[in-house]
Amino acid sequence: MPYSFNADLPAPVRNHLPEHAQDIYRNAFNHAYAAHAGESRQEEIAHRIAWAAVKRSYVKQAGTWVPWDHVPRGMED
C-alpha cells in the first residue's frame, strides 16, 4: 500500500529516521510499489528498495541516522 504521508509509514521508519529520510523512504517505496505491481513480493521489494534509497543519503552512526555529508572522513563505519 502506498503511503500518502510520513505519518502513515511503519513505526520503525517513523521512530528512527529523520523527516527528510522519511521523505526519501516514502517516495522510493511508493515508486517501487507501483513499479512492481502484480508481483507476489511487491510490498517486500518496495520496502527493500526504500531502505536502499535511504542508505544512499544517510548512515546510522551511534544509533542515529545522519546525512552522509555530516559524517567526518574516516568515520563512515
Protein described:
- With 77 residues, the protein is mainly alpha-helical.
- The chain has a single domain, classed as Rna Polymerase Sigma Factor, Chain: A (Orthogonal Bundle).
- Helices cover 51% and strands 10% of the residues.
- It contains three helices and two strands, in the order H-H-H-E-E.
- Strands 1-2 form a two-stranded antiparallel sheet.
- Strand 1 and strand 2 form a beta hairpin.
- Helix 2 runs antiparallel to helix 3.
- The model has no long low-confidence stretch (mean pLDDT 93).
- This is Cation transport regulator.
- InterPro entries: ChaB, ChaB_sf.
Helices and strands, with pairings:
Elements lengths: L10 H6 L2 H17 L6 H16 E4 L2 E4 L10
Antiparallel strand pairs: 1-2
Helix pairs in contact: 2-3
